[in-house]
User: Fold this.
Amino acid sequence: MNNNQIGSPMATDPGVVRNDGSFLRKVILALIFIGIIVLSLLVTMGVIKANTKPEEKKRSFNTLAVTADYAYQDDVQLNVSAQGEARARTEIDLVPEVGGKIVYVSPNFIDGGIFRKGETLIRIDDSDYKVAVIRAESNVAQAEQSLAQEIAEGEIARRDFEELGEGEPTALALRKPQRQRAEAAVQAAKAELQSANLQLQRTYVKAPFTGRVKSKASDIGQFVSPGSRLGRIFSTDIFEVRLGLTDNALGKVNLPIAFVAEDYATAPEVQLTATVGGQFQTWAGRIMRTDSSYDTQTRTLTAIVEVLDPYGEGLSDKGMPLAPGLFVQAQLTGKTYENVVVIPRDGLRPDNEVFVVDEFGVAAIKKVEVIDTSPARAVLLSGISAGELIVLSPMEKSRISMPLKAIDINNPSELLVDPTMEEWAKAKGIDMGRKPDGKGKSEDGSSAE
Assistant:
């Protein structure tokens, strides 16, 4: 074997040597490319890291969304609402003063009938009463005849005594006692005649006032005795509505206890309303007096409202009379307050407290003095000022320290207050600087988190 056979083929074959050099170059180029990429990534990460501050611990900032509205100043007239039942001021049982058989009944004497004052509603058989009048007239005539006879006899006795000339005659001699007895008999007979005529007149049962029949309890042919019930009638001249008022309501309308109006024109006005026949009706009335004592059951004092001529000039605005038994709502006009603060009713909390929120979302509780409340508003005498933002949403006191975001109650798409954490913390006096524990502390040590 020669030397060429003993040597390595790679060492002796030029083609092989060229192939190995190309492969190495490719490997080296690949490593360089990879190195460049890795180096680029490292440089990029270094730059990013160099430009990035250490991430601070995020602070939680949860705002409580509430609806709110502004307090405003206004002149307010207080009104008091009450309810009562309309009734006639005068309502009586119609009764006869004499007994007998009913021989006439007025066509108007029926349930719901309308009658005028002095109208004959029922007439009782007067035959016996006419006889009594005739008998009484006869007795008067007899008594007068007896008196005339006594007068004549007394005159004769006086003349006889004068002719005898025996001094002054005595009263007995002149028959004065007999004459006085005869005069008394005449007076008694005339009184009996007057009584008989009165009984005869009473057979006509007449209406004592203009009004209506509430109920009818008798009819023609029926025998009635004095005092028996013929029916029930009421007057239509004045109607009353009795309103139970609390002490608070009495104060609002400035109505004293034992009040009596001097006249109708100057009495406190009242508006009465009710729905009749599917239409809303309104009547005008006035408080004429109050009861003399409180109701022991309700502890209220009754104010009595009068409506004049409810079937005539006192008709409602739509021409409806105020009928007895109708349940009505009453609005009493009360005192007027100038430049008082008014807020929505939902803003008034128990114990007369109000939650207010400022422009930085900081809430506070304020005590207020209340003048009046209604379903829509509360009228305040003191405690807050006009322009303050009032929280209307239900909210517990325990959440008053939370930052609030106020939504306009009249326009829910509009935010009245939407604070940042920095604004709220600054308004609260909380230091936002970081502490070793990563939490900001206020001056009193409370956490800003």
